[in-house]
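R.M. (postdoc): so does anyone remember the format we settled on? I'll just put the structure tokens first.
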């Protein structure tokens, strides 16, 4: 028979399928274990029941012999012929009966007295373990022995004691018949009980587990399929919790895979654009170099900034796929004037055309930061551009729209603040801050700006965080430590950056 092509594909893809061989599936193991455990329980019941049957059988014979003996030896009863006595006593199965009362013993001989008695038992003083041992000794090894059974006469033994000698063969035959019936009944009960327990456990446990297993296999085969996500049944037990957790993990994984696919598609699209864009920028770079030779004051003022902007664009096109590869190049740190970087950022924002947004820079002109100037420029540009776009989207004419960048040095750490008076970040953006494709604050945004800023700051060994507690606008704070200097055996004192709270939040 040909193998199932889907199973063959799953095996090639490394997806393990549940076994269909008898005895290997969870249902088969459960059924076999249920039958086994029920049979063990029946055995535990069978052992004392056999011992109790033996004791009951002997006690009945002893009671019958006692009643017949009392009748025969009673003074008010006319003496029975010897033949009749023997027939009455033989009906009890006894070979001999001994009556003891007040120190007087009387022997009633039914047949020839056996030469030897093999086993003796006092039914009034038999321990449970001894009774169990004797029962299985009779069942397994008995049949040809002679027993001597002793027991009290009357309720409290006040009428004396009776001893009966009888053959073990009738007892063993009765025990074999009883054991066979008990075994058959136990086996039937075991099957019925096992079937009921199996059906109950299969409905309560096995089916939900199988459903989760099938869902995981379907999801592993096609993670992008929305229908492969398990639908929780709404149970309130542990399996219900497992179903809901599995559904949550599958949904989260699908969302992550979609983000990764979008990122891969973006990288592919950018790689196609990158080739042509580099040629265009190279031509623009050649033409911008010629602007320096023109003796126009306005051109003289803007030409250097235009050349720096085009140079940055050319450099970006060379490294544009770095984020798609989740690997920014290591920062090339140097002493940089932060005020010049912020000024270049303000020149590229284009807010001086309409004058609706105010730009404020509170950065000392001589403040130096130990960082890669191009990467630091990208960090501040991403934060500033997000702030400008958010304030431009605010159509309230009376609202004050201001972007402020301030900085200060505290020991070996430079603290840079980028603040705006815009509408602030929505809740979803706060929960997914610095996550690509999830942390965007506007419709159609990708959230890559904050993600890139976070990655670049982290590469410098610094931190970037959103200061909470603002009722209006957003406030991002960047902390950039100076690069450590190797002084050999001389240890450089560690300076712990001090967290400065915004006084406006108090």
């Amino acid at each position: 028979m040909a193998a199932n092509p889907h199973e063959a594909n799953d095996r090639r893809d490394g997806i393990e399928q549940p076994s269909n061989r008898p005895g290997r599936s969870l249902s088969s193991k459960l059924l076999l274990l249920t039958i086994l455990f029920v049979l063990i329980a029946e055995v535990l019941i069978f052992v004392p029941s056999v011992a109790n049957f033996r004791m009951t059988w002997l006690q009945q014979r002893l009671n019958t012999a006692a009643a017949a003996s009392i009748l025969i030896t009673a003074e008010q009863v006319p003496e029975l012929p010897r033949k009749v006595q023997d027939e009455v006593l033989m009906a009890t199965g006894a070979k001999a009966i001994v009556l003891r009362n007040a120190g007087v013993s009387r022997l009633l001989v039914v047949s020839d007295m056996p030469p030897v008695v093999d086993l003796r038992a006092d039914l009034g003083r038999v321990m449970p373990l001894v009774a169990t041992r004797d029962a299985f000794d009779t069942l397994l090894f008995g049949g040809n022995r002679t027993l001597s059974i002793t027991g009290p006469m009357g309720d409290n033994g006040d009428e004396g004691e009776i001893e009966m000698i009888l053959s073990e063969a009738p007892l063993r035959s009765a025990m074999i018949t009883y054991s066979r019936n008990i075994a058959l009944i136990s086996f039937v009960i075991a099957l019925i009980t096992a079937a009921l327990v199996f059906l109950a456990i299969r409905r309560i446990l096995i089916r939900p587990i199988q459903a989760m297993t099938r869902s995981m296999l379907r999801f592993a085969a096609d993670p992008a399929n929305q229908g492969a996500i398990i639908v929780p049944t709404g149970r309130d037990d542990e399996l219900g919790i497992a179903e809901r957790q599995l559904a949550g993990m599958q949904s989260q994984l699908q969302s992550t895979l979609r983000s990764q696919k979008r990122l891969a598609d973006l990288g592919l699209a950018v790689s196609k654009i990158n080739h042509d864009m580099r040629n265009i920028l190279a031509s623009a770079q050649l033409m911008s170099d010629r602007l320096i030779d023109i003796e126009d004051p306005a051109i003289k003022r803007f030409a250097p900034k235009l050349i720096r902007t085009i140079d940055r664009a050319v450099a970006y096109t060379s490294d544009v796929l770095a984020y798609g590869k989740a690997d920014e190049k290591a920062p090339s740190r140097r002493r940089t004037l932060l005020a010049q970087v912020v000024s270049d950022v303000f020149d590229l924002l284009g807010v001086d055309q309409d004058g609706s947004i105010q730009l404020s820079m509170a950065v000392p002109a001589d403040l130096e930061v130990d960082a890669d100037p191009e990467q630091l420029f990208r960090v501040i540009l991403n934060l500033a551009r997000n702030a400008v776009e958010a304030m431009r989207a605010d159509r309230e004419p009376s609202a004050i729209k201001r972007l402020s960048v301030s900085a200060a040095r505290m020991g070996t750490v430079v603290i840079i603040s980028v603040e705006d008076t815009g509408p602030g970040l929505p809740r979803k953006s706060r929960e997914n801050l610095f996550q690509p494709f999830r942390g965007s604050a506007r419709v159609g945004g990708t959230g890559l700006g904050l993600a890139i800023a976070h990655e670049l700051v982290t590469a410098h060994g610094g931190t970037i965080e959103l200061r909470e507690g603002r009722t209006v606008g957003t406030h991002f704070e960047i902390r950039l430590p100076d690069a450590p200097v190797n002084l050999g055996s001389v240890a450089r004192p560690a300076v712990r950056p001090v967290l400065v709270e915004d006084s406006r939040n108090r």
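R.M.: ...and that's the designed sequence above, right after the tokens. Also worth knowing: Residues 169-221 form the longest helix (53 residues). DSSP finds eleven helices and twelve strands in the chain.
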